[in-house]
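REVIEWER CHECKLIST
Item 1: Sequence provided? yes
Item 2: Single chain? yes
Item 3: Sequence as submitted:
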Amino acid sequence: MADESTFTRKFRKELMAGLSSLVLLAVLARAGREMYGYEIAKAVKSEGEGGLIFKQGAIYPVLRSLDAQGLLSSRVEASAFGPPRRYYAITDEGRQALAEWQGAWRDMREFVDDALTANGADHEHDHRPSA
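Item 4: Structure as written out by the authors:
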Protein backbone atom coordinates (compact mmCIF):
# COMPACT_ATOMS: atom_id res chain seq x y z
CA MET A 1 0.00 0.00 0.00
CA ALA A 2 3.04 2.29 0.21
CA ASP A 3 2.81 2.98 -3.52
CA GLU A 4 -0.83 4.06 -3.39
CA SER A 5 -1.79 7.45 -4.67
CA THR A 6 -3.24 10.14 -2.44
CA PHE A 7 -6.59 9.52 -4.15
CA THR A 8 -6.53 5.82 -3.27
CA ARG A 9 -5.53 6.45 0.35
CA LYS A 10 -8.39 8.97 0.68
CA PHE A 11 -10.81 6.49 -0.95
CA ARG A 12 -9.75 3.71 1.46
CA LYS A 13 -10.16 6.05 4.44
CA GLU A 14 -13.67 7.02 3.35
CA LEU A 15 -14.66 3.40 2.78
CA MET A 16 -13.34 2.37 6.20
CA ALA A 17 -15.11 5.26 7.91
CA GLY A 18 -18.38 3.96 6.51
CA LEU A 19 -17.71 0.32 7.33
CA SER A 20 -15.93 0.52 10.68
CA SER A 21 -19.14 0.29 12.73
CA LEU A 22 -20.15 -2.86 10.85
CA VAL A 23 -16.71 -4.42 11.36
CA LEU A 24 -16.62 -3.63 15.09
CA LEU A 25 -20.12 -4.97 15.72
CA ALA A 26 -19.22 -8.15 13.83
CA VAL A 27 -16.01 -8.66 15.85
CA LEU A 28 -17.85 -8.24 19.16
CA ALA A 29 -20.75 -10.47 18.09
CA ARG A 30 -18.37 -13.22 16.97
CA ALA A 31 -16.33 -12.95 20.20
CA GLY A 32 -19.43 -13.59 22.29
CA ARG A 33 -17.84 -11.84 25.28
CA GLU A 34 -16.76 -8.43 26.49
CA MET A 35 -13.54 -7.09 25.01
CA TYR A 36 -11.46 -4.01 25.66
CA GLY A 37 -10.17 -1.70 22.95
CA TYR A 38 -6.77 -3.26 22.37
CA GLU A 39 -8.30 -6.75 22.18
CA ILE A 40 -10.81 -5.48 19.63
CA ALA A 41 -8.04 -3.86 17.59
CA LYS A 42 -6.07 -7.14 17.59
CA ALA A 43 -9.19 -9.06 16.54
CA VAL A 44 -9.79 -6.65 13.65
CA LYS A 45 -6.18 -7.04 12.54
CA SER A 46 -6.38 -10.83 12.75
CA GLU A 47 -9.38 -10.78 10.42
CA GLY A 48 -6.85 -10.37 7.61
CA GLU A 49 -5.28 -7.42 5.91
CA GLY A 50 -7.95 -5.14 7.36
CA GLY A 51 -5.52 -4.22 10.10
CA LEU A 52 -3.44 -2.37 7.56
CA ILE A 53 -6.42 -0.20 6.64
CA PHE A 54 -8.04 0.16 10.04
CA LYS A 55 -5.68 2.04 12.36
CA GLN A 56 -5.92 1.00 16.01
CA GLY A 57 -6.58 4.53 17.27
CA ALA A 58 -9.49 4.90 14.85
CA ILE A 59 -11.58 2.32 16.69
CA TYR A 60 -12.06 4.28 19.90
CA PRO A 61 -14.30 7.06 18.55
CA VAL A 62 -16.36 4.44 16.72
CA LEU A 63 -16.71 2.32 19.88
CA ARG A 64 -17.82 5.41 21.85
CA SER A 65 -20.35 6.28 19.15
CA LEU A 66 -21.78 2.73 19.06
CA ASP A 67 -21.99 2.81 22.86
CA ALA A 68 -23.81 6.17 22.80
CA GLN A 69 -26.27 4.76 20.24
CA GLY A 70 -27.02 1.77 22.49
CA LEU A 71 -25.55 -0.75 20.04
CA LEU A 72 -22.78 -1.56 22.50
CA SER A 73 -22.67 -1.48 26.28
CA SER A 74 -19.51 -0.62 28.16
CA ARG A 75 -18.07 -0.70 31.62
CA VAL A 76 -14.77 0.36 33.13
CA GLU A 77 -12.71 -2.04 35.20
CA ALA A 78 -9.53 -1.33 37.14
CA SER A 79 -6.43 -3.01 35.78
CA ALA A 80 -3.57 -4.28 37.93
CA PHE A 81 -1.12 -3.51 35.14
CA GLY A 82 -2.02 0.00 34.03
CA PRO A 83 -4.90 2.39 33.60
CA PRO A 84 -8.50 1.19 33.89
CA ARG A 85 -9.86 -0.62 30.84
CA ARG A 86 -13.21 -0.01 29.18
CA TYR A 87 -14.85 -3.27 28.16
CA TYR A 88 -17.44 -3.35 25.36
CA ALA A 89 -20.16 -5.89 24.57
CA ILE A 90 -22.74 -5.95 21.81
CA THR A 91 -26.34 -5.33 22.91
CA ASP A 92 -29.54 -6.86 21.53
CA GLU A 93 -30.04 -3.63 19.56
CA GLY A 94 -26.48 -4.01 18.28
CA ARG A 95 -27.21 -7.56 17.10
CA GLN A 96 -30.30 -6.34 15.27
CA ALA A 97 -28.34 -3.49 13.68
CA LEU A 98 -25.57 -5.91 12.69
CA ALA A 99 -28.04 -8.19 10.91
CA GLU A 100 -29.57 -5.23 9.06
CA TRP A 101 -26.18 -3.74 8.19
CA GLN A 102 -24.89 -7.09 6.91
CA GLY A 103 -27.85 -7.16 4.52
CA ALA A 104 -27.17 -3.58 3.44
CA TRP A 105 -23.48 -4.42 2.92
CA ARG A 106 -24.32 -7.48 0.79
CA ASP A 107 -26.69 -5.37 -1.33
CA MET A 108 -24.10 -2.60 -1.72
CA ARG A 109 -21.26 -5.02 -2.49
CA GLU A 110 -23.37 -6.73 -5.14
CA PHE A 111 -24.37 -3.37 -6.63
CA VAL A 112 -20.74 -2.19 -6.81
CA ASP A 113 -19.47 -5.52 -8.18
CA ASP A 114 -22.19 -5.46 -10.84
CA ALA A 115 -21.38 -1.87 -11.77
CA LEU A 116 -17.66 -2.57 -12.05
CA THR A 117 -18.18 -5.76 -14.04
CA ALA A 118 -20.78 -4.20 -16.32
CA ASN A 119 -18.40 -1.39 -17.16
CA GLY A 120 -15.52 -3.76 -17.75
CA ALA A 121 -13.54 -2.07 -15.00
CA ASP A 122 -12.71 -5.34 -13.30
CA HIS A 123 -12.64 -7.78 -16.21
CA GLU A 124 -9.00 -8.72 -15.65
CA HIS A 125 -9.44 -9.35 -11.91
CA ASP A 126 -12.85 -11.00 -11.84
CA HIS A 127 -12.13 -14.67 -11.25
CA ARG A 128 -15.44 -15.59 -9.66
CA PRO A 129 -17.06 -18.72 -11.07
CA SER A 130 -20.10 -17.91 -13.14
CA ALA A 131 -23.40 -18.84 -11.55
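Item 5: Key structural point noted by reviewer: Helices lie at 6-31, 37-46, 50-53, 59-68, 92-118.
Item 6: Recommendation: ____
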